[in-house]
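input
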Amino acid sequence: MTEEESPGTLRRAYRTVTPGYKPRPNTEMNSLGWAMFLVMVALLVPLLPFAVAVWAVAKLLDYLAGRNGGTTE
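output
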């Protein structure tokens, strides 16, 4: 049995319906991603002062609870 006749080798090329993949830069999705990022930044930056205020109040309340003996022992 020769190498060409062995069952492990491919005798003819497979045909496919889909064309082969040729890598290329995907600029459409890149621009869409940047647009979504900029919209989210434009929406979240105005909310940043409120988030900082909530964080500061939470830290202040934690400090006051610890100072007044708020621990349960």
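quick obs: Residues 24 and 30 are 12 Å apart (CA to CA).
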